Amino acid sequence: MTYDLFIGDRSFSSWSLRGWLMFERFGIPVRTHTTGLYSGTLAQDLTDLAPARLVPVMRTPEGIAVGETLAMAETLAERHPGAGLWPVDPAARALARWLSAEMHAGFGALRSDCPMQLLHRYRGFVPSAATQADLARIEELWSLARSRHGSGGPWLFGAYSLADVFFAPVAARIAGYGLPVAPPAQTYVEAHLADPPFRRWRAQGLTVGYDPVPYALDLPTDPWPGPAPLPARAVTEGVPENTQCPYSGRPRVEDRLEIDGRVFGFCNPGCRDKTVNDPAAFPAFMALLDRTGDRPPG
Asked: Start and end of every GST N-terminal domain (predicted)?
């Protein structure tokens, strides 16, 4: 059974990132639909999902619409008890719900002063006293979760859980504005930036250009602080090594990229461009890249 998920623009919609990670990170089948959050068609795009007025919104296979990420999280956990969305230990699970609820409802200064953007890191951003207070509380919560329950892995409760879903946009804000946090918190932020699903979300978002750019600040920028992508570029010439798109399986491979002197084809510019943005984020492409001896004749 497949769900439908309605999201906003990947580079800027923090709540949409949460909604998408709930499916992607726990292997729950979903079809994703992008709404006109910044183009003015949001209300029209959500017409059949009443009473929804914001993204993300999910629709269950039975046709039930569920908005608000906290409601979505609990609904999915209820429907997929074996997927591991919440920690198994009761004390850890209670704390994970607490942290997620506080994130869902709070930290208004951080949200207002630092809207999520996944394009670059601003240089010289000075957080307000209220934002610094939000960061201090966030670090307190992260430290508590890690000290009590985080020994089994890099995430707040060891294994990845819905609590990490809710704090992924916070990690993006800390990264995108160069916000000052202590080394343990920075390590947790870097775990998000290196997480392949997070990287896939960002790579897809970068395929869309904006003029003007939402939330732009008059500050210099540095490259995004996540893992440096492999050097790939779009090309119009060269014989692709593959005969099918690594994502769709379609035989049309006219849209091409070049990496390390090798050419690969895709069924449309979107498939190509997201891969150019971060090839290593896409296992299907990396499996193709690792193959040898399959170059077609000619």
From this structure: 12-78
Name the token pair of 292. Answer: 């040898």
DSSP 155: B
The first and second tokens of residue 229, run together, are 């992508």
SS3 157: strand
Residue 37 · residue 13 · CB < 8 Å: yes
User: For the whole model, what pTM was predicted?
Assistant: 0.95
Q: What is the rounded average pLDDT of the residues 20-34?
A: 98
pLDDT surpasses 50 at 296? no
DSSP code, position 296: P
Parse the chain into domains and list their residue ranges.
3-79, 90-201, 232-290
Residue 298, pLDDT above cutoff 70: no
Q: Which amino acid is at 237?
A: E
pLDDT, residue 291, reads 84
Q: In 3-state terms, what secondary structure has residue 5?
A: strand
90-201 CATH choice from 3.30.870.10, 1.20.120.520, 1.10.150.130, 1.20.1050.10: 1.20.1050.10
Residue pair 42/36 in contact (Cβ under 8 Å)? The answer is yes
The CATH number for 3-79, chosen from 3.40.30.10, 3.20.20.120, 3.30.559.10, 3.40.309.10, is 3.40.30.10
Residue (of 223, 134, 143, 219) closest to 183 by Cα position: 143
Query: Residue 143: in which H helix or E strand, if any?
Result: helix 129-149
Question: Distance (Å, rounded) from C-alpha 5 to C-alpha 65?
Answer: 10
* pLDDT above 90: residue 294: no
SS3 sequence of 181-245 = CCHHHHHHHHHHHHCHHHHHHHHHHCCCCCCCCCCCCCCCEECCCCCCCCCEEEECCCCCCCCCC
Residues across the chain: 298
Segment 53-57 shows an average pLDDT of 97
